[in-house]
Amino acid sequence: LKPYFPASDEFDIELFPFYWVARLNAKYALEMEKTLKLLNMDVSRWRVAVLLHRHEELSISEIAEHAIGKMPTITKIVYRMRDEELVEIGSCLKDRRVIRVRLTHKGQDIVDMVLQQTQTLFRKAFKGMSDAQIRKSTELLSQLFSNLNQ
Q1: SS3 assignment, position 97
Q2: Torsion from C-alpha of 60, 78, 104, 39, nearest 10 degrees
Q3: Quick one: 100 exposed, middle or buried, by C-beta within 10 A (0-12, 13-18, 19+)?
Q4: DSSP H/E element including 91
Q5: What is the DSSP letter of 10?
Q6: pLDDT (tens digit, 9 = 90+) per residue, 34-93?
Q7: Contact by Cβ (8 Å): 68, 48
């Protein structure tokens, strides 16, 4: 494992998974920014919107957890999206301190448009990969995340 550990004399950055994770994330963000800009959207609001698309309704703290964002930042994004009529917010019935967020019809329409516009990007990214390879990549990345989360 020595070539994988930065402190090792045998370290090879091109064999270091986080080198590729960082490059992939930066490239993905850059490509998404280009697509999202055409739809008057940005990556931060897209993350919130796609999470709500997947989960229907989340608290701000749940959004922050999924998006790996800080609560104050996510709160600002959510309220900005509310002002743009992309989400609606309300208090949780069980605990009025908890703010629940869900997409509006306008927000859902934007998610649908972004999903349509990004199909080419995802096809390009996964070109030449089998379902098994994509699944295995996801499993490995999930395991790395889980290890760091402990």
Answers
A1: coil
A2: -130
A3: middle
A4: strand 87-91
A5: T
A6: 999 988 899 999 999 999 999 989 999 999 999 989 999 999 999 999 999 999 999 877
A7: no
- How far apart CA 144 and CA 97 sit, in angstroms, is 34
Mean pLDDT of 25-34: 94
Instruction: Say how far apart CA 141 and CA 135 lie, in whole Å.
Output: 10
Report how far apart, in Å, the C-alpha atoms of 22 and of each of 14, 19, 86, 108, 130 are: 12, 5, 30, 30, 23
Residue 39 per-residue DSSP state: T
Contact 102, 92 (CB under 8 A): no
Copy the structure tokens of residue 109: 């329409």
Average pLDDT, whole number, for the chain?
93
